[in-house]
């Protein structure tokens, strides 16, 4: 019985060592670093043969934030999300691009005459150029017809033909999508 316990104990220790090694290798691979520097790759200096990846070659993170409700809390949440993501990647030293796409009732976020967050967007446009704002042209035209007047859009926003199509196009290009 003692021998069985010894074998089980050794097997458990081996499994733990294998698990730790696998976790370390996965973490190193995720960080883009080799777990063990091999002599043939490093030369006599012990330095890695692979040069650090220049910032221009780093993966650019890209995020779509959708706003489709005329709710100031939802609009502020989208702006909070954008701010938090920009700060996170800025701290990590990695590039980020964010598009806030507003359509349907959410277009009020980007209307110069109705936006409850236009001052905040103006400030954000100056401090976080990685965040852009897109206004749905279809929604704008429908509002123009319903209200029988021009629908002014804040200068920080660009009108796109369709907000939903814009979201689709960005997703097809590999952008991440969040609806706050």
Labels describing this entry:
180 residues, 5 strands, 6 helices
Q: Would you spell out the secondary-structure blueprint of this structure?
A:
Layout: H1 2-30, H2 39-42, E1 61-67, H3 72-92, E2 96-102, H4 118-127, E3 131-136, H5 137-147, E4 157-160, H6 163-172, E5 176-178
Parallel strand pairs: 1-2, 1-5, 2-3, 3-4
Detailed description of the structure:
The chain is α/β, with parallel strands linked by helices and 180 residues long. It is 47% helix and 15% strand. It contains 6 helices and 5 strands; from the N terminus they run H-H-E-H-E-H-E-H-E-H-E. It has a 5-stranded parallel beta sheet with strand order 4-3-2-1-5, sandwiched between helices. The chain is globular. The N and C termini lie far apart (60 Å). The model is unreliable at 4-53 (pLDDT under 50).
User: Can you tell me the overall shape?
Assistant: globular
Strand order of the largest sheet: 4-3-2-1-5
What is the β-strand count? 5
Radius of gyration: 25 Å
Q: Percent of residues in helical segments?
A: 40-55%
Output the structural class: alpha/beta
Number of helices: 6
How far apart are the termini? 60 Å
**What composes the largest sheet?**
5 strands, parallel
**Mean residue pLDDT:** 79
Oligomeric form of this entry?
single chain
Q: Which percent range describes the beta-strand content?
A: 15-25%
Can you tell me the residue ranges where pLDDT is under 50 for at least 5 consecutive residues? 4-53
Series of secondary-structure elements, N-terminal to C-terminal? HHEHEHEHEHE
């Amino acid at each position: 019985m003692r021998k069985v316990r010894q074998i089980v104990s050794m097997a458990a220790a081996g499994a733990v060592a294998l698990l730790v090694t696998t976790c370390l290798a996965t973490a190193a691979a995720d960080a883009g670093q080799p777990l063990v520097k091999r002599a043939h790759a490093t030369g006599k200096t012990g330095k890695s043969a692979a040069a650090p990846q220049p910032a221009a070659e780093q993966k650019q993170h890209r995020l779509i934030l959708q706003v489709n409700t005329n709710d100031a809390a939802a609009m502020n949440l989208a702006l909070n999300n954008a701010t938090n993501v920009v700060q996170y990647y800025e701290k990590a030293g990695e590039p980020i691009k964010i598009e806030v796409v507003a359509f349907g009732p959410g277009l009020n976020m980007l209307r110069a005459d109705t936006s409850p967050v236009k001052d905040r967007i103006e400030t954000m446009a100056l401090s976080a150029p990685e965040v852009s704002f897109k206004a749905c042209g279809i929604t704008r035209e429908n509002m123009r017809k319903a209200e029988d007047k021009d629908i002014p859009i804040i200068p920080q926003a660009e009108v796109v033909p369709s907000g939903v199509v814009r979201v689709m196009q960005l997703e097809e290009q590999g952008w991440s999508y969040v609806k706050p």
